[in-house]
Amino acid sequence: MKYPYLTVVLLVIFGVVDIVILGNHYELTKSDWSGWVQAIGSIAAILGAFYIADAQTKQALKVAKERQVRDDRRRVDIVDALLSRIYDLADEMLRQSRDSNVHYFHGFNQSVLIDLRESIKTIPIMEVPYAEIVFHITALPHALEEVALVFRNVRSDGEEDPTTIYERLFATDLEQRIDDLLKLTTEARTVCLHWSLP
């Protein structure tokens, strides 16, 4: 109904007019009229109470749904911010590897990968609102660990020469692991974007 209050008012008016016409036709006394007025008032009050309760319930459900959508979007935005950080790092690593930037990889701090891995692991999965996002982010800690593992293995012998470190890093499948991480992160961000749209 477009105008529910108007409908109620019109029904009450028509009800009163009908009772007045019937009351005049049956020649009701003053005490009869007062009984009818009291009965009609009681019925109108009960109907009004039902209507108000229904309207309040609908409004409360609408507010709760809006709050849930807002909370879900906030959670997706938080996950996406972390994914954005991982994407930026993987993209930078891939560009630096293609540019053969020896010094970037010599000075690279693998703890960044570990910190990002741990951050992903601390996301409360049951609070992520959409299963597709959960599916993608649960694969990220392993992908981050795979990249960090190469750095850990190459640097475990204490080698300090930048060129030697670079050559040993890329003698492995590091570039493929970084590319896999980038693809996985891109897919996860795409899913987040899909769910964060209004």
Give a quick precis of the structure.
Keywords: Membrane, Transmembrane, Transmembrane helix. It contains eight helices and no strands. It is mainly α and 198 residues long.
How would you characterize this protein structure?
The structure is a single chain. With 198 residues, the protein is mainly α. It has a single domain (4-196), classed as Four Helix Bundle (Hemerythrin (Met), subunit A), CATH 1.20.120. The protein has helices at residues 4-26, 30-98, 102-106, 111-121, 131-137, 140-155, 162-170, 174-196. Helix 1 runs antiparallel to helix 2 and helix 2 packs antiparallel against helix 4. The model has no long low-confidence stretch (mean pLDDT 86). Keywords: Membrane, Transmembrane, Transmembrane helix. The chain crosses the membrane at residues 5-23, 35-53.
Number of continuous helical runs: 8
Q: Enter the CATH topology name.
A: Four Helix Bundle (Hemerythrin (Met), subunit A)
- Rough outline: rod-shaped
Output the helix-strand order. Answer: HHHHHHHH
| Unreliable runs | none
How many strand segments?
Answer: 0
Averaged pLDDT? 86
Helix % is over 70%
Hey, roughly how much beta strand do the residues contain?
A: under 5%
The CATH architecture comes to Up-down Bundle
| CATH class identity | Mainly Alpha
The gyration radius over C-alpha positions equals 34 Å
Overall domain count: 1
First CA to last CA: what distance?
Answer: 27 Å
Q: Describe the main β-sheet briefly.
A: none
